[in-house]
């Protein structure tokens, strides 16, 4: 499966919202200032999505190149 | 000297070692899944990726302490009693964010309630109400118990529904609902930590927020 195929697969579209929920709630822990919570949540969401995308890129290339 | 700051050598070791372990994890995942889609060794790959990235993270930050920053500008609240902590914990278990509401962290309470409830509701909608049946989904109920109020209400409203047809996003629905319930556990732990912190001297509590709402 190509990377474009992975990104447009139906299951992937469910990841950004759940990652946003995880980022918001975990960023709220230990913080009281709403601005700080939202800033950290945005950064955590971007890191999460970036990590997932990176993981998908690496795994899709491994599927393409390493495996017969 | 800051005891949490990493030396350049430690940073390089963490970054290279962590990314290397994550790369090995990716390879294990891809190879095991490529040979057999049901291969459980893929889980070992995912664990290696998580451990590798958590090892590399402090290397990128240059510090070995956590990325969590505590607010230090707000003045401390008065101590929160053990009774209020217990009642608030029960309330937070039943309704996400209600514990924070009770101790004056109202904006945070609204944020937690909106986020967790939206995630929970999205899961129920995706599964078309078929994901809250204990006899059908015992494992998922281990997560659901941390969000008792919404789970009980959802179960009451959807208990008559049967799994009588294929539901395209049933598993995603399970995932959303379980994650929402586990996020409520995080919110409950934060509530208890906030109550504990408020009882100590020099607590960076939320009095500024509470004062802002009072005015």
Layout of SSEs?
The complex is a heterodimer of chains A (about 70) and B (about 220).
Chain A: H1 3-7, H2 15-28, H3 34-65
Chain B: H1 8-35, H2 41-61, H3 82-94, H4 98-102, H5 106-126, H6 138-144, H7 148-158, H8 170-198, H9 207-214
Mean pLDDT of chain B: 82
The biggest beta sheet of chain B is recorded as:
none
Computed over alpha carbons, the radius of gyration of chain B is 22 Å
Helix content of chain A: over 70%
- Provide the low-confidence segments of chain A as ranges: none
- The end-to-end distance of chain A, rounded to whole angstroms, is 13 Å
Largest sheet of chain A: none
Low-confidence parts of chain B, pLDDT < 50 over ≥5 residues? 72-76, 201-215
| Chain-averaged pLDDT of chain A | 81
Based on secondary structure, the structural category of chain A is mainly alpha
Describe this structure in words.
The complex is a heterodimer of chains A (68) and B (215). Chain A is mostly helical. Chain A has one domain. Chain A has three helices and no strands. Chain A has helices at 3-7, 15-28, 34-65. In chain A, helix 2 (15-28) packs across helix 3 (34-65). Chain A is elongated, with a radius of gyration of 15 Å. The model of chain A has no long low-confidence stretch (mean pLDDT 81). Chain B is an all-alpha fold. Chain B folds into two domains: 8-61, no CATH class; 82-205, no CATH class. Chain B is built from nine helices and no strands. Chain B has helices at residues 8-35, 41-61, 82-94, 98-102, 106-126, 138-144, 148-158, 170-198, 207-214. The interface between A and B is large, with 28 and 44 residues.
């Amino acid at each position: 499966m190509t990377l474009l195929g992975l990104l447009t697969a139906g299951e992937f579209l469910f990841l950004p919202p759940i990652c946003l929920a995880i980022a918001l709630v975990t960023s709220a822990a230990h913080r009281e200032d709403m601005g700080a919570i939202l800033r950290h949540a945005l950064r955590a969401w971007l890191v999460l999505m970036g990590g997932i995308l990176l993981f998908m890129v690496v795994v899709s290339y491994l599927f393409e190149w390493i495996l017969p | 000297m800051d005891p949490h700051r990493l030396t350049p050598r430690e940073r390089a070791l963490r970054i290279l070692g962590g990314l290397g372990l994550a790369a090995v994890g990716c390879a294990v995942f891809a190879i095991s899944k490529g040979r057999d889609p049901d291969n459980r060794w893929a889980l070992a790959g995912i664990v290696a990726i998580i451990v590798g990235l958590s090892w590399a993270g402090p290397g990128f930050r240059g510090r070995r302490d956590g990325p969590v920053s505590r607010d230090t500008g707000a003045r401390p609240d008065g101590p929160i009693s053990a009774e209020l902590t217990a009642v608030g914990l029960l309330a937070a278990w039943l309704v996400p964010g209600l514990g924070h509401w009770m101790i004056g962290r109202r904006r945070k309470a609204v944020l937690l309630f909106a986020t967790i409830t939206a995630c929970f509701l999205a899961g129920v909608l995706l599964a078309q109400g078929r994901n809250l049946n204990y006899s059908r989904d015992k494992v998922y109920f281990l997560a659901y118990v941390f969000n008792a109020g919404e789970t009980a209400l959802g179960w009451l409203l959807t208990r008559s529904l049967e799994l009588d047809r294929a539901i395209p996003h049933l598993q995603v629905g399970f995932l959303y609902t379980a994650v929402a319930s586990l996020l409520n556990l995080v919110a409950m732990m934060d509530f208890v930590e906030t109550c504990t912190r408020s009882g100590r001297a020099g607590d960076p509590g939320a009095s500024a927020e509470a004062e802002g709402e009072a005015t």
